[in-house]
Amino acid sequence: MRTLLPVFALSAVALAALPLPAIAALPVGAVAPDFTTPGAKGGKTFEFSLARALKKGPVVLYFFPAAFTSGCTVEAHEFAEASDDFTKAGATLIGVAADPIDKLAKFSVEECRSKFAVAVANPAMISGYDVKLPLFGRSNRTSFVIAQTGKIAYSYSAMKPEGHVAGTLAAVRALKTR
Length: 178
What we know:
By secondary structure, the chain is an alpha+beta fold. Helix content is 38%, strand content 24%. Strand 6 (132-133) and strand 7 (138-139) form a beta hairpin. The longest helix is centred in the middle third of the chain and has 19 residues, at 70-88. The relative contact order is 0.22.
């Protein structure tokens, strides 16, 4: 049995290194779980409330695994570049990650370019939106468009950042034409 322990340990490490599927189980048409959480924009902290944001229009809520990682930085830059388009379409844009608010405040300036808010994704939010990244206690990379009705109008899950901005922007624009 002692000789098998290194094999099991190596197998566990190898499995952890494999890309994991990012599947959002919260389907289109489901009611989006309401939440209030600490957020930051341009380094200034505030309380973000989904219910308050929905009173203004649709909300683009994107979960990302961790601030200041390569894929999350690319995604933040892409959302920052498109932030004016989301605003013109009447949407509130917010990124959320299971990071402390002080780290997210810094990320909001450096990577989000003070263009949109980021907020703390707590375990209840991650569970409620069913975006938990197995083994890590963080979220996967999933983007949602939540209609003013509070229902999920669009969701897209992929660990690569490409496709999140284009998909959510198209979904927001489609809501405007309904």
